[in-house]
Structure formats: structure tokens, C-alpha cells
Design goal:
- The complex is a heterodimer of chains A (345) and B (420).
- Helix content of chain A is 47%, strand content 14%.
- Chain A is globular, with a radius of gyration of 20 Å.
- In chain B, 55% of the residues lie in helices and 10% in strands.
- In chain B, the strands form 2 sheets. Chain B has a 4-stranded parallel β-sheet, sandwiched between helices. A 4-stranded parallel β-sheet of chain B has the order 6-5-7-8, with helices on both faces.
- The longest helix of chain B has 26 residues.
- Classes of the chains: A alpha/beta (345), B alpha/beta (420).
- Chains A and B meet through helix 3, strand 4, helix 4 and helix 11 of A and helix 7, helix 8, helix 18 and helix 19 of B.
Chain lengths: 345, 420
């Protein structure tokens, strides 16, 4: 099946529109074993290492079934980088979605207009029709996926499902065929019902937050140090499934509302509201500590850190902030800080 | 040649008047605090005219940060911010302001007092919004932000239309916000006068830039880097218009008499990006190679009325709609395709020999795309370019020797090209 690639540092792209157009939404993920040598010829090495990694892969050659790309506004370089993607790739369909920074009614109306434009452009380029009925069908599927992921996520809290295993499930859901995803998740859900809790003792229950973390090996690395990610507020995590799209609303409006009302991330305004999201998760999941990972040069997360640090100190919640580099060799260099944090909590 | 004449050539006499004009701006800020008049911090690229139109005294923390740098305080302020947990990799303007506020620095050191409210926009960068979010929380003041959609190389006219609509709606909502916070009401007549002044100020600045097309160029960055500040801080007032007119007249006289800012002008350069405010002498140093910067997109960009669709009539009769259009067509935020086109045109019209591109470690949105811009200018138009890596306000990030060596080699290349 043909795919539409999604270049999105958050999870703000309505996959349902891509599905209703007859394509598989295929979110791009990084490859931490890859050096962004060719991307560095376009983007300075002091810029987000993750998006340089995605560009590197795109320059080297995308999956041949990818027939177009949606770039969705994340931080302030994403639009500039999208211009570079236009430079480097030769695809008929390239659309930049201006996911608004604000979340009020004006922003909602604007986002609805931008989603309508996305639909129009897909229809124009691929000579197709995206009907409200097709959008509704897609919403029903993605809502089922969201519900299943939320149920499955709770097995992390019950200490039945490892964070790394869950991470992989969410990641797969963002680039595999949705019907296949649904089938896999249903099976997993059944299987988990009879799975016994972990036998390990002294597990440190963690809320993981920060920049997009798409390398499951990193989660496994944290687990090897005795941490267990019981909850997160990441794109490859709860931000992908926490709320549901309202199936009773007109579909475009429902999709816009869904994206503007889901748990806030650091790119949105006011980003300090993210603390409230985190605080609620901390209370609900009774975590032992919070780990905030900023990928090197990830400005939105870097701006939020001092505020979060202050608030967590006030609440006496153990909090570890790490600026990490997107390659696996660097993980071990962080072990001292992680181990010291494990001691504290 | 007499000493007086040499000095005269380097900087316009009229530019000396900048100190007075900017002095008035800072006096107005102090006066506003004394009188209890509402004040607002505003980020560059935001519609400062609306503040003047609503009788709010604007304060531009970026402008203040440049003062800190020029006075050699920025490094200390930046380190104070870093001690608070703000990363080494974040914007040095932002960190300068954080440090200045924590230190309670006065205006002469680049300090900015607590305002009645803050106005930010992400038209230039996200940092502006994050910056004011941090500082509004610290100072406990209301903050309004304008969310500006981003134009890319393949944005179409349909999109432009709803982009503009979204901005205009926010501007109207901002007027309500001001009224709610300060009680000040929007006065159409006053707004018209402010807009007229803003238009006039920008037009004179653009006329000055036209004069810089002359060979030899009548003025250098000694006049424009500082000369830019009234465009940021005082669009809507009459005083800076007089200053710019004096600068224009003097530069025109130079052009009419074939006098350049340099005694011998060999190489005409363009400088893309924000200058290193802590090391402005660096730009004077270019003169040792008989080189002069004749165009800076950064200083030109703030004469905002460059979009031919935005006429004076529109600005006066529909200021909100005009501002909405202008915020989407600002030199500093051009998409890559438009950026390449504008650079090529500018190089041709201003008879530029080479382009210096500042890869600013503090301004990632601006430096993103710089490599492709360079490649196109060199490969498609045979325009020599040099990328310099440094920072606008953090002296720790400038390796002066390396930059000088790079420029020396670049000038050699230009020299060889001229000999061909």
C-alpha cells in the first residue's frame, strides 16, 4: 500500500486524513546508529540532531511506497527544514501543516482551515475524494487503537508490561498499516490479561518526559539500570492516544479539536501548563521520580527545564534532567547520572 | 586629508544624533514608570505601532540586550541565566535579559523593568514566546502572544488568505486584551497618525538603502547597525523620522559628490544575520581590506513595508489587515526559495562582490537554510559566499582569530576574481 510520510516532531498530524485518502500514514523515526553526514551539508551540526537524522534517511532514500510527505509544525526550525526537504526530495506531494501554537478558538478555526487545505491538496495531487464518511471510518479505527493503547498502557502501572515493550507497540502504531496495528494490539491486550507481574524487586517507577524519544533501546537501557517507565508524556507514548476524537462531531472539526485539546507539549503555548499535565500523571501513577530528557539542541524542552525543576523542587518530587545525544554510544556515558538518581529515589 | 574629513567619511555626522533619539526613548520609558503609564515589553517583529496607538510605552528587551553586549555586560548576564538552569545552547539575547532582570540592571546596562504586560510573537522565532513566558512568570505580569503561521516554499494563495485572517483576528483580540489590562482604548485617529509615522520612517530608511547602491557606498554598518534601533523601538513617532532624513540628506550629498564611507572601496559585501553586538569593531576591521558592507537584510528587514501589496493607503485605512499581511512577508523570515531569489536580486542591484553569512549559534531559525542558500548563490549565480560561525550576544562563542583568517582568505578570493 502506498504511504504518506509524516515528518512531525510531535504527534500533531491527523493520520485519519491520510487514511481517508487511501494511504498508510508513515511517521518517520530516527536511526541512532546513523551519522547525519549528508544532512549536515544542509543543516548546521548545532541544530536538532533528531531532525538531521530524519533528513539523512530521506536523502539516502525513502521507502519506495512513500508518495508524499506531510511536515507538521513543531519548533521554529521545522518550517525552515521543510524547505530543505523540498530541496532534497522529488515528490509530487509535499505539504506543510501549520499546527497552531495556541489552543484557543481562533487557533481552532485556523487549524480547521489548514486541515481543509491539506485535504484539498491531497485530492488535487492524487485525484481522489476524501469524504466525511471516509474520515469517520478512519476515526473509528484510530479511536479503537487509542483505546487499546490506553488499556495496554495501564499494564505498565500494574508492573506487568515493560516500558520498552509498550514503547515498541506505540511506535509500530505510528507507521504500520492501521488494520494490522489493530489486530496486533487486540492480540496483545488478550495476552496481557494472563501475564504475571514482574518478579524484579526495587523497581524505580518513573515518569519519562522531554524531547521525542523514539529509540526503544534507550528505554531498555533505562530498564537495565533499574528504572521502570510506568507512564510518560511523549509522542511515542501517551500523547499519541490519551484522548479520543469525538465521533459525533463533524470529522474535520473533531480532528482539529482533538489535537488542540490533548495534553500540552513544550512547543505549545502556554508550555508551562505541561507541568500540570505532569503533576497529574505523577499523582495518578505514584511515580518515584521524573526523568526529563532533552535531545541536544532541543530548545522547547531546554526552555521548560528550569521551571519544571523549580516546581518539582517545591513539591519535593525527585527530578532528573539530562541533555542527551542521539546515538547509542552516548547512553553509557550517562550511566553515572542515572545511577546517582536511582540512589536518591 | 584632514582628520576631520577622514572621520566624516567613516560615519555620517547625522548618525551621531542616534544617541539623542534613543536617549529620548529611554527617557520616555523612565517617564512612563514615574507617571504610572502602562508599559509593555515587545519582541522584535511584533506590531509595536499598536502599542503606541494605544498609548502604551513599548520596551524592546532585544534592543536592551544589544546594549548589554555593547557595554560588555552580556557575558555576565548570560552566565547568571545559565546558573538558573538555562542551557548553554539557548538564545543569548534571552539569557542576557534573564541575567539583567535577575541582577536588577538599570537601563544603561540593558536592564528592563517590570512592564504592565508583555507582547510576543513567533513570527521570527519560538524563543520570543518562550522568553516572555519565562519572564512573565518571573515578574507575574500578563502575556499576550501572536501565533503566526509559517510560510514555506510551496505555500499557496489560498493559504495566505486564511493565514492573514488568523493573524488579523489575533490582532483584534490583542486590542481587547490591552483594553482589559490597561483600560486604554483604541483610538482610530491616533492609530492613523502612528501608522503614518511608521510608514514615513520606513520609507526614509528604504531611501537610505537605495543610496547604498552607489559606488562608492556613502555609508557603512557604522550607520546602519545602530541606526536600525528606532525602527524596532519607535515606529510611530516623529523624532526618528527627522534623524533618518538628516542621515539621508548627508548620504545623498556624499553620493552626489562621489564620496564613499571608505577612502578606497574595493570590495562590496553583504552581511546576513544579526551582528556580534559585543564586537562591533570587527566590522570596522573589514576596512583594512578596503571592504565595506553595503547591505544587511537584517537591518533592512525592519523597514517592514516592503510587500508591494501593502500600499500606504491600505496601511492607513486598514492597519490591522496591513500588519497581518506584513507579518507574513518579512525579509527575515522568507522561505528558502524566496530568500534565494531576494539575495540574488540584492547582490545584483547593490553590486555586491561577496556575501558573509552569519551562522548564528543563538538563532537557529535564521541559520537553518543558510547552507542551501549559500550553495544556490554560489552554484546558480556564481556569487562568492562565506559562512561565519559565531553568536550575536555571547562573546564566548566567537573565535575572532578564526573568523578574521576566514575573511582574509575570502577577500583574497574576491581579489582574484576581480583580476580575471
Amino acid at each position: 500500500m502506498q504511504k504518506i510520510g509524516i515528518f512531525d516532531s510531535g504527534v500533531e498530524t491527523p493520520e485519519e486524513i491520510v487514511m481517508a485518502a487511501g494511504f498508510t500514514p508513515y511517521r518517520f523515526f530516527g536511526d541512532p546508529t546513523l551519522q547525519p553526514d549528508r544532512a549536515n551539508e544542509h543543516i548546521p551540526p548545532t541544530h536538532c540532531i533528531w531532525t538531521r537524522n530524519l533528513l539523512e534517511q530521506a536523502i539516502k532514500g525513502l521507502d519506495e511506497n512513500i508518495v508524499g510527505i506531510i511536515g507538521t509544525h513543531g519548533c521554529d526550525r521545522t518550517n525552515r527544514e521543510f524547505d530543505i526537504w523540498i530541496e532534497c526530495l522529488n515528490l509530487d506531494f509535499m505539504f506543510f501543516l501549520n499546527s497552531p501554537r495556541k489552543r484557543d478558538n481562533l487557533a481552532l478555526n485556523f487549524f480547521i482551515n489548514d486541515l481543509k487545505e491539506l485535504i484539498l491538496r491531497l485530492e488535487e495531487v492524487f485525484n481522489i475524494e476524501i469524504t466525511p464518511g471516509k474520515l469517520k471510518d478512519a476515526i473509528i479505527i484510530t479511536n479503537k487503537i487509542r483505546k487499546l493503547l490506553k488499556d495496554i498502557s495501564d499494564y505498565r502501572k500494574k508492573l506487568v508490561l515493560k516500558g520498552s515493550e509498550f514503547h515498541e507497540l506505540v511506535k509500530n502504531a505510528q507507521y504500520q498499516d492501521k488494520n494490522q496495528v489493530l489486530e496486533n494490539l487486540e492480540k496483545k491486550s488478550e495476552e496481557l490479561k494472563s501475564r504475571a507481574p514482574f518478579s524484579e524487586k526495587n523497581i524505580k517507577k518513573i515518569l519519562l518526559t522531554g524531547s521525542e524519544i523514539d529509540d526503544t533501546e534507550f528505554i531498555k537501557y533505562l530498564e537495565s539500570l533499574g528504572f521502570h517507565i510506568v507512564i510518560d508524556d511523549l509522542g511515542v507514548g501517551t500523547k499519541y492516544f490519551w484522548n479520543l476524537v469525538d465521533e459525533n462531531l463533524e470529522p474535520i472539526e473533531a480532528l482539529a479539536k482533538y489535537h488542540l485539546t490533548k495534553p500540552i507539549n513544550s512547543i505549545k503555548y502556554p508550555s508551562y501548563e505541561r507541568f500540570n499535565v505532569l503533576q497529574k500523571l505523577i499523582e495518578d501513577y505514584k511515580v518515584d521520580g521524573v526523568i526529563n530528557i532533552a535531545q541536544k539542541f532541543c530548545e522547547p524542552v531546554l526552555y521548560d527545564h528550569p521551571y519544571l525543576n523549580k516546581k518539582f523542587k517545591e513539591l519535593e518530587i525527585p527530578y532528573l534532567f539530562i541533555e542527551a545525544t542521539y546515538n547509542r554510544e552516548s547512553y553509557n556515558q550517562l550511566s553515572t547520572r542515572f545511577s546517582a538518581f536511582a540512589e536518591i529515589i | 586629508m584632514s582628520k576631520q574629513k577622514t572621520e566624516h567619511r567613516k560615519m555620517l555626522n547625522a548618525t551621531q544624533g542616534l544617541k539623542n533619539v534613543m536617549g529620548r526613548h529611554f527617557l520616555a520609558i523612565e517617564q512612563a514608570y514615574r507617571d504610572g503609564k502602562p508599559t509593555a515589553w515587545a519582541t522584535s517583529g511584533s506590531p509595536v505601532e499598536l502599542l503606541y496607538a494605544m498609548d502604551i510605552q513599548p520596551i524592546l528587551p532585544e534592543n536592551s540586550a544589544t546594549i548589554s553586549a555593547a557595554q560588555k555586560y552580556s557575558r555576565d548576564f548570560i552566565e547568571i541565566a545559565e546558573a538558573e538552569g538555562f542551557s548553554y545552547d539557548l538564545c543569548s539575547y534571552f539569557k542576557t535579559n534573564v541575567g539583567a532582570v535577575i541582577s536588577n540592571a538599570d537601563l544603561t546596562k540593558g536592564g528592563t523593568g517590570k512592564p504592565t504586560f508583555m507582547l510576543s510573537t513567533d513570527v521570527i522565532c519560538d524563543t520570543h514566546v518562550n522568553w516572555f513566558e519565562v519572564q512573565a512568570e518571573r515578574l507575574k505580569v500578563p502575556h499576550y502572544t501572536l501565533d503566526i503561521p509559517h510560510v514555506v516554499s510551496n505555500t499557496n494563495n489560498r493559504q495566505y488568505n486564511y493565514f492573514k485572517k488568523y493573524i488579523a483576528e489575533q490582532l483584534y483580540s490583542f486590542l481587547d486584551f490591552i483594553q482589559e489590562v490597561t483600560g486604554n482604548e483604541y483610538n482610530e485617529e491616533r492609530a492613523k497618525q502612528v501608522t503614518q509615522n511608521s510608514w514615513d520612517l520606513s520609507m526614509v530608511w528604504q531611501d537610505i538603502y537605495e543610496l547604498r547602491k552607489a559606488v562608492p557606498c556613502p555609508m557603512s554598518t557604522r550607520d546602519t547597525f545602530g541606526g536600525l534601533f528606532p525602527l524596532f523601538t519607535m515606529p510611530g513617532l516623529k523624532e526618528p523620522i527627522k534623524l533618518y532624513k538628516r542621515m539621508y540628506r548627508e548620504a545623498k550629498t556624499r553620493v552626489d559628490n562621489g564620496i564613499g564611507a571608505l577612502e578606497k572601496e574595493e570590495f562590496r559585501l553583504m552581511f546576513e544575520g544579526i551582528p556580534f553586538w559585543y564586537n562591533l569593531k570587527f566590522f570596522g576591521m573589514l576596512e583594512r581590506w578596503n571592504s565595506i558592507i553595503v547591505y544587511e537584510p537584517y537591518t533592512y528587514a525592519f523597514s517592514k513595508y516592503m510587500n508591494p501589496k501593502v500600499t500606504k493607503e491600505m496601511v492607513l485605512s486598514q492597519p490591522i489587515e496591513a500588519m497581518s499581511e506584513l507579518m507574513l512577508s518579512f525579509w527575515y523570515i522568507y522561505d528558502l526559495k524566496t530568500r534565494i531569489k531576494k539575495f540574488e536580486e540584492t547582490v545584483r542591484e547593490w553590486k555586491i562582490d561577496g556575501v558573509l553569512l552569519h551562522e548564528n549559534l543563538s538563532c537557529r531559525p535564521n541559520s537553518c537554510g543558510l547552507y542551501d542558500l549559500k550553495r544556490h548563490l554560489m552554484d546558480d549565480y556564481d556569487i562568492p559566499c562565506l559562512v561565519i560561525s559565531s553568536d550575536m550576544n555571547d562573546p564566548r562563542k566567537m573565535n575572532e582569530t578564526q573568523v578574521i583568517n576566514q575573511i582574509e582568505s575570502f577577500i583574497e578570493i574576491l581579489r582574484k576574481r576581480k583580476k580575471k
